[in-house]
Predict the 3D structure of the following.
Amino acid sequence: MKVEHYKQGEELHVKLCGELDEHSGAYVRLSLDSLIDDGEIDKMYIDMSELDFMDSTGIGVLIGRYKRLKAKGVPIFLQSPTPAVDRVLGISGIYDIMIKAGQA
């Protein structure tokens, strides 16, 4: 699992590459928390175009980051999920609390 990132102004852009499951969940959670705590952000974008697989652990990671950022008034935008990941996100109901970029 690889977590790439960059900041553009006060926007945090993160790209998840690989598989987000029980084996990589803790690493992704710690990586995202570190990025969130590292500075002021007003939006977070998560690019999922190279995320091959995600299970319920991944949903938990996303919901945890959502709760942390919601407390600060920072929205999360999910970008370009692969078809398999999009299906998991849709079934989980996560699009009810996070915005699928391009559909806002």
In short: The radius of gyration is 12 Å. Residues 56-70 form the longest helix (15 residues). The chain has a mean pLDDT of 94. The CA atoms of residues 49 and 82 lie 6 Å apart.
